[in-house]
Structure formats: C-alpha cells, structure tokens
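Changelog-adjacent note: as of this version, every example in the card shows the full chain rather than a window. The one below runs 101 residues end to end.
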Amino acid sequence: MFTKSGRYGGGIYAHIDIAFEFASWISPEFKLYIIKDYQRLKTDENSRLSLNWNLNREVAKLNYRIHTDVIKSNLIPPDLTPEQISYRYANKCQAWQSPLS
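Full-length structure tokens:
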C-alpha cells in the first residue's frame, strides 16, 4: 500500500486483495460493488488492448507483404532457376530484416 500526493494523480493505492478485504470490512454490499466495478474496468482494459494488438498485427502483415513484393519485383533477376530464386529470396528477406546487415 502506498500514497501519492498531487492534484490529479493523488490517492491511496493498494493491492487488489487488500482493497477487496477493506471493502468487505465496510460492508458486504460495498465489497460486491467494488468487485463488479473492478471486473468492468479490467474488461474495458482488455478490450482496448485487444484492439491495439489486432491493429499492430494487421500493420505488420501489410508491411511483410510490401517487403516481399519489393524483393520479388526489384531484387531477384528473372533468369534464375526456381531453386536459385528461393535461395536468393530467403537471403534478401533476411538481409532486409536484419539490423546488422
């Protein structure tokens, strides 16, 4: 448990188990209210994080497609055999993504 002073960020903060026990000490009805509100806050938080994660996933997928298309169209000569193309393609992809290359 710790306190934090300040105009907008101040307050007393405690582990959730301590907060629930303190709420039950006040009244069972208050404890139920605190538990329901905590569950609502966690559900909202998970929903926001899920949207952000899905957005990042889609952007990464689009960037991957752009990188691979650029490699295929600009960095691999058309006169290679399929085996040479796959080897060259793998090397170019690795070099493109490696920070040390």
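Structural remarks: The longest strand covers residues 2-4.
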